[in-house]
Design the sequence.
């Protein structure tokens, strides 16, 4: 079994120590713990973090923007623009694009990705097959979880319900949803019920797109809270986007946030995408679609941040880099004090780890899986500000990524 010692590393909490890895696992840590043991990497005081977890990305749709027609920039426009491409999907194309994004995510410090994958009557199970193939291709550098995601609705897309079941039978392990996309409130309720029943049938966690709209009167978050309580699925439910909460009235927001806290629901905000999608019809004071991050955190609701989209119909930017996502999130949610910047770090590390229910197998501690990343910067605020990629990334104790940044000021 190979032994690796990363010496003189700074942790996010300020401690400086050595970390010893044997095989896939952290076996010791402390000042001087790694001296003379195995292969040695001198961190020179650089920041050592657990690898990031991108808990909200759409691998089937990444890097497809060049194949789409331009649209009005809204969520509806983005969904419509992708239909033609989705009809013509082939497994190898999805696989190639998904693989490229997993690889660039690994190089920027992410070794776990939760991918929503469209399950609908347009693309059938082709996106799922492509993403599963990419996940298998990349199994030696990253771990990919697949969410069955009914992008076109369930009631609105007759046939989608059967495809959702088939997706869960063929490799998806998390149940997705998009209840606000149904045409009326009864449809939304039925959509939510369907997702919880499917989760119970497969003993699966739930991760739904919830209220990704500027319409503050939409109430599917409350429906999810209620169904979580009724079904006993506490601590197994994640909700993504939740844009409408920022436009909703304060009384409702306070009630539903308290409900999320009681039900152990994790919220994933994806500010990059929603900053460009939402508020397209507004003039002047534009709604930017970022949910009530600070209020959720203050109420004890775990908040994660995800990449969501990369160069697709929804978002023309991105590269699977959660350091960039963290910086955008800090701006969008007014997270600027040192403590708040650490809350952003938690949103791409420990919060998603908890939603994945990884327990003590995640983090920098004895017994944890050695998914690690090392920066040249010594602190998290400096790494976040400077945006240099990690020098080295390890997955299961093995080096899987290395980046050298070289800059030289040339003076006369
Ligand atoms: Zn999404």
Sequence:
């Amino acid at each position: 079994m190979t032994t690796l010692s990363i010496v003189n590393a700074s942790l996010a909490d300020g401690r400086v120590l050595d970390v010893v890895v044997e095989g896939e696992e952290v076996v010791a840590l402390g000042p001087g713990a790694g001296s003379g043991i195995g292969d040695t990497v001198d961190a020179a005081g650089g920041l050592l973090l657990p690898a990031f977890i991108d808990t909200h990305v759409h691998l089937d749709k990444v890097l497809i923007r060049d194949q789409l027609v331009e649209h009005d920039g809204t969520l509806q426009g983005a969904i419509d623009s992708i239909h033609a491409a989705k009809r013509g999907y082939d497994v190898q194309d999805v696989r190639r694009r998904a693989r490229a994004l997993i690889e660039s995510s690994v190089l920027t410090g992410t070794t776990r990705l939760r991918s929503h994958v469209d399950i609908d009557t347009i693309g059938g199970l082709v996106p799922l097959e492509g993403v599963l193939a990419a996940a298998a291709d990349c199994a030696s550098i990253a771990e990919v979880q697949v969410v069955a995601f009914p992008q076109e609705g369930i009631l609105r897309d007759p046939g989608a319900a059967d495809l959702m079941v088939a997706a869960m039978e063929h490799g998806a392990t998390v149940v997705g949803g998009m209840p606000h996309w149904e045409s009326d409130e009864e449809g939304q309720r039925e959509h939510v019920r369907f997702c919880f029943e499917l989760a119970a049938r497969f003993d699966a966690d739930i991760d739904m797109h919830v209220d990704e709209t500027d319409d503050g009167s939409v109430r599917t978050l409350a429906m999810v809270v209620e169904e979580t309580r009724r079904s006993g699925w506490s601590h197994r439910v994640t909700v993504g986007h939740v844009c409408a909460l920022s436009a909703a009235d304060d009384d409702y927001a306070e009630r539903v946030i308290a409900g999320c806290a009681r039900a152990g629901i994790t919220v994933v905000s994806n500010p990059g995408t929603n900053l460009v999608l939402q508020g397209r019809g507004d003039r002047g004071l534009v709604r930017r679609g970022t949910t009530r991050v600070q209020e959720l955190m203050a109420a004890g609701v775990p908040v994660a941040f995800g990449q969501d989209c990369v160069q697709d119909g929804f978002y023309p930017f991105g590269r699977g880099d959660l350091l960039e996502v963290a910086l955008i999130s800090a701006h969008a949610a007014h997270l600027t004090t040192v403590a708040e910047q650490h809350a952003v770090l938690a949103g791409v590390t420990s919060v998603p780890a908890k939603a994945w229910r990884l327990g003590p197998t995640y983090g920098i501690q004895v017994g944890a899986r050695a998914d690690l990343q090392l920066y040249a910067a010594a602190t998290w605020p400096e790494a976040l500000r400077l945006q240099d990629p990690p020098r080295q990334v390890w997955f299961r104790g093995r080096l899987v990524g290395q980046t050298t940044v070289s800059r030289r000021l040339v003076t006369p």
The chain has two domains: 3-51+361-402, 52-358. The longest helix spans residues 185-202. The chain has 14 helices and 16 strands.
